[in-house]
Amino acid sequence: xxxxxxxxxxxxxxxxxxxxxxxxxxxxxxxxxxxxxxxxxxxxxxxxxxxxxxxxxxxxxxxxxxxxxxxxxxxxxxxxxxxxxxxxxxxxxxxxxxxxxxxxxxxxxxxxxxxxxxxxxxxxxxxxxxxxxxxxxxxxxxxxxxxxxxxxxxxxxxxxxxxxxxxxxxxxxxxxxxxxxxxxxxxxxxxxxxxxxxxxxxxxxxxxxxxxxxxxxxxxxxxxxxxxxxxxxxxxxxxxxxxxxxxxxxxxxxxxxxxxxxxxxxxxxxxxxxxxxxxxxxxxxxxxxx
Length: 290
Description:
By secondary structure, the protein is α+β, with helices and mostly antiparallel strands. It is built from twelve helices and six strands.
């Protein structure tokens, strides 16, 4: 397909103007000159350079890849029809059947926005962090500071990178940490069975097996499974240890998981979550976590 650079540029600019920073878990800040996202913010969320965004919005530069267009569509919260339209304008084929869904429906995005008091995020079938609300960044660390190719629970857990910004620490003891690690591996095995031809999943699995002996051992000994709702203890750098309910809700059409953290009313953890809205995103102690 031949790209239509002029129409693509206009479509991207219109979409960028519709998205508020708080819609994508970014601080709104003061003295903003644009109604929506800044180009710098879109570049951070999509994992591309600001110069690339500028060139796309000026209708010049190289033809974007499927991966770039997918990242832009997620960052701009495009509806499915809008996503397919900008893919066509870019001269790129829309995602094919049999691939893991990496686009979050707008209805699901609206749902996590409604969890104003609770940390919430959306994971793909292979545990990519696709979307999150401000409370999730306040609890775990600012997700926008993680490079998009690193925004995957398994990569953060089994393939730590010193270049990653620090994350909140899982501190529930060895048994709890092993349980969560095994659940993540079981979920990936389920995805591998459902999507044997997904190229990004194949790359992820190859990297994990090559780079982590701990993952390799779990992969050899863990059957397929799904994420389950459990308690989880996190050490927040400002609020201390928080034991929270971690509920995982399945979005069946997209085979995605909506993960929500909560605490019973009247508990110290509930008070801490209320305070978390005020504390906001912090510089966190190093150790990756989902």
